[in-house]
Structure formats: C-alpha cells, structure tokens
Amino acid sequence: MEEQKSARKTRVGVVTSNKMDKTVVVSVARLVHHQKYRKFIRRQNKFKAHDALNACQIGDRVLIEESRPLSKDKRWVVVKVLEKAAI
C-alpha cells in the first residue's frame, strides 16, 4: 500500500525545555537570506509541542508535526525523537 502524503507541516528542532507535563518547547532554527546585505541570518522560532510519553529531554533533536489546537499555545505534536542529547 502507498502512504498518503500528509498536508500537515513538519519541523525539525531541538528541545529547549521539558519542565511542563506532556509538553516540550522546541526551538527551530533556519537560515534566511538578507536581501540588501546578501548574507545569511539565523532566525529562530519556539513551538510548544505535545509529548504524550514525556520521552523528550533537553537537547534532543525531534520531529514535530502540526495538529489541532491542544491548548492555548500548543498546536504541535512530537512525532519522533531523531537524536538523543549527549549527556
């Protein structure tokens, strides 16, 4: 069977906080080209994502996916942990 392509957005980022119950804060960094100065600038967004198993630790690289609103700020779900943090 073929997998259906999801219309939901996905992002890869690093967990910066896991102090909340079943919620992690994920920082997603990207490079943006500055039109005038012709340089690349680092930009960063923070997303609150649902972590049902409380499996994520600070420093883990995770894949998050867009979902329905789960709370006031939480609109993303952790799909999988790509890389565990080196302790």
From TrEMBL:
GO (cellular component) term, any one: cytosolic small ribosomal subunit
Ribonucleoprotein found in the keyword field: yes
UniProt keyword terms in alphabetical order: Ribonucleoprotein, Ribosomal protein, RNA-binding, rRNA-binding
Pfam families membership: Ribosomal_S17
GO biological process terms on file: translation
CDD domains: Ribosomal_uS17 (cd00364)
InterPro entries in the record: NA-bd_OB-fold, Ribosomal_uS17, Ribosomal_uS17_bact/chlr, Ribosomal_uS17_CS
Domain of life: Bacteria
GO molecular function, one term: structural constituent of ribosome
Database matches in PANTHER family: 40S RIBOSOMAL PROTEIN S11 FAMILY MEMBER (PTHR10744), SMALL RIBOSOMAL SUBUNIT PROTEIN US17M (PTHR10744:SF1)
HAMAP family (alphabetical): Ribosomal_uS17_B
Stated family: Belongs to the universal ribosomal protein uS17 family.
Function: One of the primary rRNA binding proteins, it binds specifically to the 5'-end of 16S ribosomal RNA.
Subunit (UniProt): Part of the 30S ribosomal subunit.
Protein name as it appears in the record: Small ribosomal subunit protein uS17
Origin species: Desulforhabdus amnigena
